[in-house]
Specification:
- By secondary structure, the protein is α/β, with parallel strands linked by helices.
- It has a domain of 145 residues: Spore Coat Polysaccharide Biosynthesis Protein SpsA, Chain A, CATH 3.90.550.
- Helix content is 28%, strand content 12%.
- The protein has six helices and eight strands.
- The strands form three sheets. The chain has a four-stranded mixed sheet with strand order 3-5-2-4, with helices on one face.
- It starts with a strand and ends in a 13-residue tail after the last helix.
- This is alpha-1,3-mannosyl-glycoprotein 2-beta-N-acetylglucosaminyltransferase.
- It is found in: Golgi apparatus membrane.
Length: 209
């Protein structure tokens, strides 16, 4: 039930080394990653097909892990889970706070409307239909070392220091080439999410959230 982008396979090939550097040996460069996903849960109004980011919220819908990670998961996978397997990976697998690499513009598109969780005409089906899908050809992602933990944290701090501080009432008419910082409390999330046209039910794609 997934359509894949032109660079779907190349995307995983280009990012595999990030997981290889997060193995179990004592000399690993970055033990903070466990997966690469082709899906952005908030990939509605997005445009930069080359930009990838990190999230501790497991996204699903096309993903890659190391064999060693799967060997661990299969030993603890619940026989009778009370929630979906993706919810278990997020909250019951013990993988958090390790993170996943995610594209700004998704490399998969969910099209089935007759499954267990997605029904034709449902709010979820309408939401998935709005998702952008990359058309980037293979071999265009460039140097991805910025996704390694220390480099990523340093860049985030640099962006945060230079960001313009705003409130929820200022969300209209923001410039696409500027960085904004919007502090909020949990009870304000759904209102802000509706304004931003992202997932409303719960925060997704957070980093260290």
């Amino acid at each position: 039930d997934l359509l894949v982008a032109p660079d779907f396979l190349w995307y995983f090939r280009a990012t595999a080394w990030l997981l290889e550097s997060s193995g179990n040996c004592r000399t690993e460069k970055d033990p903070s990653l466990f997966c690469v996903s082709a899906w952005n849960d908030n990939g509605f109004q997005v445009s930069d097909e080359k930009r990838l980011f990190r999230t501790d919220y497991f996204p699903g819908l096309g993903w890659m892990i190391q064999n060693s990670t799967w060997s661990h998961l299969r030993q603890v996978w619940p026989r009778f889970p009370s929630t979906g397997w993706d919810h278990w990976l997020r909250h019951g697998s013990g993988l958090r706070p390790r993170e996943c690499i995610v594209p700004e513009v998704s490399r998969t598109h969910h099209f089935d409307t007759s499954g267990t969780n997605v029904k034709a005409g449902s709010e979820l089906a309408k939401k998935l239909e709005r998702m952008a899908t990359s058309r980037l050809p293979p071999k265009q992602l460039g140097d991805l070392s910025y996704l390694l933990h220390d480099d990523y944290e340093a860049k985030l701090m640099e962006l945060a220091r230079g960001a313009k501080l705003i409130s929820g009432s200022q969300l209209g008419g923001l410039k696409g080439n500027e960085v904004y910082l919007l502090p909020y409390i949990r009870s304000e999330y759904s209102t802000l999410a509706k304004q931003l046209q992202i997932s409303v039910a719960q925060p997704r794609t957070a980093h260290r959230g």
